[in-house]
Specification:
single chain; 8-stranded parallel sheet
Amino acid sequence: MSLSLTDGGIETSLIFKQGFELPCFASFPLLETELGRDALRSYFTPFLDLAAETGLPFVLDTATWRANPDWGERLGYTREQLAAVNREAVAFARSLAGDRPSIVINGAIGPRGDGYVIENRMDETEAEHYHAWQVGVLRDAGVERVTALTLTYPEEAVGIVRAAASAALPVLVGFTVETDGRLPSGESLSDTIARVDRRTGSGAACFLINCAHPSHFARAVSEGGAWVERIGGLRANASALSHAELDESEELDEGAPAELAAEHQALRPRLPAVELLGGCCGTDHRHVRAIAQAWMAQP
């Protein structure tokens, strides 16, 4: 098994540690000022250094999780301006990578909606049409693959996988779950992954679990089944709080890196296909370091 690393909770780090206000939880507007670019550079550099230190490949995300049409409009971006900032995000990621070896430039795609709450549930065709625009812009800007993160229901995932296939880009699909291990839509991870594979001809390179604490999905994973073999990455939250509790929190819950790493290590025997490790809300390079060390220490 080959292992790659990625980053942690970019938005929570920028807000709580660097003091930025991020309207709509969007980091991409920071690309438009030197102060913002410096903040992004400061955030990513420790992760890139960790990859160099460990000799592991690194998946470098573009700061485009919120850079899709609806969120762009809410933030006052025209479609042309939004395309330009998506392209700039790819160029910026490439500049961060520099001449470092084994860096994958990955286009980050977020949900059309909130990420925790389902407001308007698209069907598969609508989701494909909606996300195809950003996928196309990222492809033309030169990303090597795309990853959808914090998806809440299967139809949106199907649409993204189909859009990526039309763009001839590899795609990874990340779902979030509630404290009961089910998606915010109520579906189980196992049923959702099976449905997306069935509706796309297993078009996703793999699936991720992100923006949830290991305690939220450990039981689902322990039940096993063929679907577990499709889980190729983990990007967990540092906090065991629910999504609703995190939304209301005014302080960053960083948890404890060693405890989060131990919970990942306990999951490893049940997740043999995982090849990507990173973090989500509340995590930084300390958490990812601890997680990687614990994962590699497990025989």
